[in-house]
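Reviewers of the previous submission asked for a worked example of the structure-prediction workflow described in the proposal, so we include one complete record here. The input consisted solely of the amino acid sequence. No template or homolog information was supplied to the procedure at any stage.
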Amino acid sequence: MKDKRLISVIVGLVFFIPALLTDKINGTFAAYLTLYALAWAAAAWSVAYKAARNISRGIIFDENFLMLIASVGAFVINIVFSDYETELNAPGGGEAMMDGVLVMLLYQVGEYFQALAVRRSRKSIKKLLSMRPDSAVVLRDGIETEVDPEEVKTGELTVVRAGERIAIDGVVTEGSGYVETSAVTGESVPAFVKPGSEVKSGCIAVDGLLTVRTTKDFGESTVSKMLRLVEEASDKKAKQETFISAFAKVYTPIVCALALAVAVIPSLVGIFAMDLPASQMWSQWIYTALSLLVVSCPCALVISVPLTFFSGIGGASRIGVLMKGSDCFAPLAATKTIAFDKTGTITKGSFAVRDRRTDESSLSALAAAESKFNHPIALALSAENTKGCVCTSAEDVSGKGIRAVVDGHNITAGTHAFMLESGVDCKDADTPYTVVHIAIDGEYRGYVTVADEIKENSKDAVDACRKEGIRTVMLTGDRPEVALAVAREVGLDEVRAGMLPQDKVAAVRELELGGKTAFCGDGINDAPVLAAADVGCAMGGLGSDAAIEAADVVIMNDDLTSVVAGRRHAKKVIRIATENIVGSLAVKIVIMILSVLIPVVTVLTEFPLWIAILGDVGVCLVAVANSMRALRCKKFTAKKVR
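From that input alone, the workflow returned the following structure tokens.
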């Protein structure tokens, strides 16, 4: 029970229940006044503190101030304006004080649900810091020394082994091998690096032993800049106001001004125009004004609005969409543009043979030869049917291709340049995908293309976006020709390729000028833009920890159609919250009007406080029941958009 709100509610109930029993059974005024006061203090201390703190900062009219004056007003009504001979010494004499305590308890319960929804679904963004390289191996005087990356100076030599993450940006001076760059650049095919090649921090060496001369300090390296972007964007979003705070800035001063007017104007009219007793007029209309404040207390709002979003979070989770907080719903519902990363988001992030422009026997021989290697392209090719072919020897020619012997035949396979270098005459293929040419015993046998597979539901998701008037954009670090081919296949509206993390952030901020923008991604490189976007959607099943931590919404099943379903659900949740707000305010306004009219039309008869309490509790129950509709969330079905 670390949450102070929960502790306040529990302690408040400890005093409130005995107070209620004492009040209703036949206790003394002093007894239930003391218990009600203790219950109020337990529930209201944090609200009073916040109200005082905000007032000292020049912020007077917020929800804390409204709750405070409403609950205090209830106690004042009960203590000052009740008949001590009958009401306060009879069972049920503390009716107004009970309402004052309930105001605070309900408010704290609502705030607790709001905080609980966020705390359970969002971990601290600071965990991203644990993803940076913990150490770097530096060569000093010919000796390998493991040090903190921050201690490495520009120009020093670092050693990176297979499976290790490059700690600092630099240039390869010795060694060669493949480097997995998708986490940083989004490039789906591992890059082959050799002496003279630039490498970025955050990339992972797949094989080989690399010696890298650093070109930047750790603080200016790619991974450090990414972390800074995430923190800056997250801080910016954390300052957004909650709905209740924004609403209270308008609602509270209106209610307070109205209560003041009710207390003063009729009293002055009665005293000077009607020659009525001053004490009677002031007593009657101050009571009415305090009653108005109690009536105006928006209990139904402060409990139903957070509960609506809390229920909405639960409903979305049932279809694999994790909303990290109530502040995600409004921007997601209002989204006009959705930007997608490519690798791991629109595509699966795994390779497969796409076009087979060769005969079956040649493809089987190639599959047998590639089975001797484990880089992504080789794994895709070796997945083809070998049909019993046996590879007896194989050689990987650094970043170009392979030479192998399969069933006694010499196999040469690789890039167009590699084939020409090997004496095989062939034409380059006109395709954006990775091409592997094949020759057997020096005779050209055609080629196959290898590409990242597109997810089954990506096109359905894009079609649904178009149906709902949402613009779709791809932001990727992959090559333009590959990005364009994928975009054409799934039907995207716009493509921007060859982008680094900072480029994606700038692009999203540009898109946001045209309306709310969501970004969907999965890699470490997407963390900054996920945090910067109005709504960041991370692919949670296969996505990196950095992307998941930085995002507002996590798609647990890695299905882009869930983004569409999540947006529809967000619109439903906002609609339910709006219904609760409008309905609650409508009833409140009616009761507030009655609280002023009844004393006038019934010749200064006091407004019965039980009407306010009944209306408040009744509206609250209806609003809560309506909020529970947000627990139902429909899955996406392609039939709706075709």
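Confidence is low (pLDDT under 50) at residues 120-131, 233-241. We consider this example representative of the routine output the project will generate in years two and three.
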